Every structure is written in C-alpha cells, then in structure tokens.
Amino acid sequence: KNEVEQSPQNLTAQEGEFITINCSYSVGISALHWLQQHPGGGIVSLFMLSSGKKKHGRLIATINIQEKHSSLHITASHPRDSAVYICAVSDSGGSNYKLTFGKGTLLTVNP
Amino acid sequence: DAGVIQSPRHEVTEMGQEVTLRCKPISGHNSLFWYRQTMMRGLELLIYFNNNVPIDDSGMPEDRFSAKMPNASFSTLKIQPSEPRDSAVYFCASSFEGFENEQYFGPGTRLTVT
Predict the structure, then answer these.
(1) From the list B48, B101, B105, which residue is nearest A43 (CB)?
(2) What residues form DSSP beta bridges with A101?
C-alpha cells in the first residue's frame, strides 16, 4: 500500500506570499493528483501529472518520479486560495485502480 | 453540463435504516467513483466503475455497503442497515477513462446516522 505524506499539515500565509505544499509517496505511481477542497466542502481537481511540471494561472505543480515527491506552488497567494489541498496517487504496477490520499494541508491566507 | 449531480445533499437517519445515495455522472464520462470522507480517515475510495462495471470494490467497508450502476447516467450507493459510524460525507466523481484523467467531483452527500 502506498503511503502518502503531506507537509505541512497547516500553513498560514499573508496575502502575496509564495506558498509551497509538499507530497511524498512510498511506492511507484502512475499518476499524482492535486485536489482543492474549499471550506464549503466542494472538491476540485487542480492537476493530474505523471512527470515534469504543469502550470495553471498562479498554480504550479511539479513531480520528481525518482525522488517520489511532488510540490504544489501558489504564487502571489490570495485569501480566496484558503482551502485544504489534498495530494492523491494512483498506484502503478499493472493495477491502477487504487487511489491513495494524503491527509491534506489546510492553507489559510490572511489579507 | 451541470457537472456531477448527487442527491440528497443531506441525509439524517436513524441507526438500522436503509440509506440510498444517488449520483449522475457527467455525460460522456465512462468512469465513476464513490468516495467517503471523515475527519478521522480523510478521503477514501469505496468503489470504482468503468463502463458501468464495478472494477474494484475493495474499499467498500463491509457487506452493509453496496453500489450499482445500472446505466451510464446513474449510480447508487446503498447502506443497509446504517450505523452511526457510517456518518460521513460521500462524494461521487466521474472521469473519462479512469484514474489517468481528471476527476470531476459532485457536491457530496452529508450523511448523519443517529
């Protein structure tokens, strides 16, 4: 079973700061997902990546397959970025039915 | 498209009662997922359907839980009999071709079993 660790668990930032959230996993994967869950509970998929880097607006996600590590960066953070960010991995090895979730990082951006 | 639709949004029931949660995936998506989220365990995948067929139900906690997908536009998750420890938010998500593509989540059903 893949173990997914996120850090930090909680993060408080001031508006405008550059933010990094980390995700490490223990077993080779086929894909890694970053999800955003807003205070109201809705979940949005931000990125799905298996190598390299993806960028969408102020959000950047990177993955290092060799180091089994991914980072989610938010540039010029804003209070509306306040949410729980969840990392999830799909296991590789022929059976990619498993999706293992990290426990999430609670981000609070203060104005 | 209206996105993934779940009903009801909230459900309060007494222990021992049957509960049925419903999901309509995004039209054109052929993969459907049921998740459960609790404070203690976070998000967990319960079952995954592809082309209406259950592919992996190893996440279903016990025999009290069952899920069906009779057609491409409808799925149910049933709990019978319900127990207080089943209280959680249940999410349905859909995608095109499984885990390797972006999943779209429904708003969730908040279940409280008293």
Answers:
(1) B105
(2) A88
Contact with chain A for residue B16, Cβ under 8 A: no
Q: What is the pLDDT of residue B51?
A: 93
A-contacting residues of B 90-109, CB under 8 Å? 91, 93, 98-105, 107-108
Burial A11-33, CB ≥16 within 10 A → b, else e: bebeeeeebebebbbeeebbbbb
Q: What is the pLDDT of residues B93-104, one digit of tens each?
A: 999 887 777 889
Taking only the tens place, the pLDDT of each residue in B23-45 is 999 999 999 999 999 988 899 99
The CA distance from B53 to A93, in Å, is 21
| Strand segments (E) across A3-104 | 4-7, 10-14, 19-25, 29-37, 43-49, 52-56, 59-64, 69-74, 83-91, 99-101
- In angstroms and rounded to an integer, the radius of gyration of the C-alpha atoms of chain A is 14
Phi, psi angles (nearest 5°) of residue B77 = -125, 120
